[in-house]
Known about the structure:
mainly alpha, 9 helices, disordered N terminus, about 0% strand
Amino acid sequence: MLENKGKEKEKFSDLLKTSWVRSALKLGLVFAIIGLVILLILKILNIGSTQLFSDMKAFVAEYGLVGVFLATILAGTLVPLGSPALIVAAAVLGLHPILLIMTSTVAFTIGMMINYGLACRLGRPYLIRKMSKEKVEEIADLWSKWGWILYAIFGFIPVLPVELLSFICGTLKTRLDIFLILSFIPRLVVFTILAYFGEYVGAWMGAA
C-alpha cells in the first residue's frame, strides 16, 4: 500500500516537473495577474459608464454568441485565442451567463473532437508535425501512467494544454464516449465559474 502511494507521488511529481506543464502554469499565472491589473485600471477609469463601453455591449449582445462559438472552436484546436479570457470578457460585456456557458462548452468540445478526428485519421506523423517528437513522447509517457485522470486534471485547469492531450487520445484511438464526457464536463465547470466571475466583474465595473 505504501509502495503504491509512493508511486502515485512519483507520478504527480513527474507531471509537475514536465517543462511544458511548468511553462503553462507560469504563463497562466502571468496572464491572470495582467488580466486583474487591466480590470482594476478599467474600474479606476470608470470605463463601464462610457459610451464606448455601451456600444461594445450592444455589439456583443447582437453578435457575441456567434463570435464566442467560432473563437472557442479555434481555441480548442490549438489556436492560442485564450478561451478563459474570452469567456470572462464576454460575460463582462453582458452576454447571458447560461447561454455563454453552453455555447462555449459545446464549441470547445467540438474543437477537441476536431483534434481527436485529425489525429485518429492521420496518426503519429501528423502529431509529430504539430509538436516536437520529444514532446509527443513525453506526453505519451505521462498518458501511460495517468490516462483519463491526466485528461480530467488538464480539463479542470484552464491554463494547462488539454488540447495537446486530445491529439494523444486520437492517435491512440481511445474510447470516444469517455473522451467526449471528459472534454465537456470539466470545461462546463470551468466556463461556469468564469462566466459568473465575469458577470460579477461587469457589475463591479458599473457595466450592469
